[in-house]
Amino acid sequence: MNIIIVGASGDLTQRKIMPAIYDLYKDKLLPDDFHIVGFSRTQMTDDGFIKKLGAFKDYDQNFCSRIEYISGEYSNLDSYKKLGETILKHDGNRLIYLAIPPDILRDVTANISKAHIVTQCACEEDKTNSYCVKTGNWSRLIFEKPFGTDTDSAVDLNYYLQALFDEHQIYRIDHFLGKETVQNIMIFRFANSIFEPLWNNHYVDHIEINISEEVKIQSRGAYFDNAGIVRDVIQNHALQLLSLLTMEPPISFDADAIRDEKVKLLKSLALYDENTYKDHTIRGVYHGYLQETGVKQDSKTETFAAIRFFIQNWRWAGVPVYIRAGKALASKTTQAHIYFKELPHKLFKNIAPDRNLPNQIIFKFQPHEGIHLTCLSKIPGKNFELVPVEMDFNYQMNFNSRLPDAYERLLLDAINNDLSLFIRHDEIKEAWRFVDSFLKRWENNSQFPLYEYNPGQNGPEQMHTFIKRFGHLWNKEYCRLKI
Ligand SMILES: NC(=O)c1ccc[n+]([C@@H]2O[C@H](COP(=O)([O-])OP(=O)(O)OC[C@H]3O[C@@H](n4cnc5c(N)ncnc54)[C@H](OP(=O)(O)O)[C@@H]3O)[C@@H](O)[C@H]2O)c1
What separation in angstroms does the CA of 108 have from each of 98, 126, 386, 397? Predict the structure, then answer.
C-alpha cells in the first residue's frame, strides 16, 4: 500500500498525520508492504524530510526506510508524473492524503487525476470505479476541511470533485468524529436500552453544545479572518456532534445508513429568517483581535458565536438547542449537555430549595473524554441534605489502555473502506444551508452587534442576557449559580 501525502512539508503532516501512521504501524495495523511518499514544493531530500518529521516524534529505522519525498509544483503536471513514477515502484493500493490549503485544492486534484495517480492504469472504466479495473487496487483520497465557505461554494466544489473521482473514493475528514466519545455517542444511544426512551421532547428540556478554545487565532490570521468561528467550528464540528446526538436510529451500522440519518437531521434544522436571526444569535470578538497578523483593519469577523434554534421533527419539536463556540476563552473544552426536564412535583423543595437541578447527561470530548450523568443524592449523615453527584464513565479509569488519536482511527477506517465517520457531500450542503441562514444575514447587516470580550473570559457579557431571556443559563453559570 502507498500512502501519499500532498502538502507533506506542512504542520498537519508533522503533528498529526505522520504520528498517526507511525502508531498504526507500531500496533501492526498497517499492511506489511506499506510505503509513504511525501509531496510538496519545499526542496528536501528523503533524509531532510525524515529529519523534519523527527522534530515531533521519534520514528524507528524500519519505518523511516519506507519514507520517500518528492518536491514539485502543485500546478505543474510534470511534478505529478514524477510522483506517479515514484509510486509505481511499489504496486498496490493508494491512500492519498490532501494536507493542503483550500485555495490550491482544485489544481492539485485536477493534476492528480490527469497524472492517473487515482485511476491507476488510465482505463476509461476506472473513472467510475473505486477500484482500478486492471490491477484491482483501490485508490482513496482524504480531504481536510474547509469544504467550501457557503452552500454554493460547497456544492460547486463537490461537483468539481465528483467529476474527477467516484464519491466512494472521497473521504472528507472531520477529526472530531475520530474521537472515542464521539463514536461512543452512537453506542451509548443505540446499544443501551435505558437512554433512548428518554431521548425526546417528553423528557429533554434543552440541549447545549459548547466548543471553547483557550488559544487565540495564533498564526492562522489570514485564514481565520476569512472564516470566523461559525465556519471554522460550528458548521462542521458542532453540527456533526448535534446530528449524532439527535438523529434517528439508523437501519444498520453501515456508512450510508448512518449518513442518511445525519442528513435527515440536518435538513430538519429550522432556518433563521429576517426576525429570528436577530434574537436567536449573538456574536463577539476578543479584545485585540484587530491587531493580530493577517486580520483586516475593518474586519467584522466573529471569534465567538452563540446560537439558539430548534429541530423541526416529531422527536425534538419544542426542544431548544444552544451552540456556543469561541476562541481566547477561559478553557479548552468541548462538551454536549442533554438537560432533562424538571420533575412535575418537587418533593424535596423544603429541604433543598436551591438543589432542584435537572438531571443532565454530559458528553465530554475534550480535554478529558467521558460520559457523565448528574443526579441528586443525599449527603451521608443524620441531616437530610441533597447534593448533585456525577456518575462517571471515564476512559482512563475504565480502560487501562492508550486512547488512539482521532487521526489514527480515521486513517485506519479509510484503509478499511469504512466511510461511516467521514462526511458525505449532502451533509456538508445541509450544514451550510443552516449556517448560511444566519451568517449571511450577519454579513449583510453592518449594524448587527459584534460584542467585545476580554481574552480569558467565557465570551461577551451579553451572552448571559441572551440565554436568560429564554429561561436558561449556560452550563458553567448554571453550575455556579445553582449548585
Ligand atoms: N494543522 C492543523 O492542525 C489542521 C487541523 C484541521 C484541518 N487542517 C487543514 O489541513 C490542511 C493542511 O493544514 P496544514 O496546517 O498542514 O497547512 P499548512 O502547513 O499551511 O500547509 C501545508 C503545505 O501546503 C503548502 N502551502 C501552504 N500554503 C500554500 C499556498 N498558498 N500555495 C501553495 N502551497 C501552499 C506548504 O508546502 P510547500 O510550500 O512545501 O509546498 C505547506 O507546507 C488545511 O486545509 C487545513 O485547513 C489543519
Answer: 9, 19, 61, 45
pLDDT tens per residue across span 357-377:
789 999 999 888 889 998 888
Which tens digits make up the pLDDT trace of 54-107? Answer: 999 999 999 999 999 999 999 999 999 999 999 989 889 999 999 999 999 999
Question: Rounded CA gap, 430 and 249, in Å?
Answer: 19
- Complete domains list, the chain, with CATH: 2-144 (3.40.50.720), 176-400+424-482 (3.30.360.10)
**Which residues, at least 6 apart from 225, have a Cβ–Cβ distance to it below 8 Å?**
217, 294, 295, 296, 299, 301
**Whole-angstrom Cα distance, residue 143 to residue 141?**
6
Q: Which of 11, 45, 98 to mutate to test the pocket of ligand 1 (most atoms within 8 A of CB)?
A: 11
455 lines ligand 1 (CB under 6 A): no
In angstroms, how far is the first alpha carbon of the chain from the final one?
A: 55
Q: Enter the C-alpha cell of residue 20.
A: 498517526
d(CA 431, CA 227): 15
Nine-digit cell string for 354: 436551591
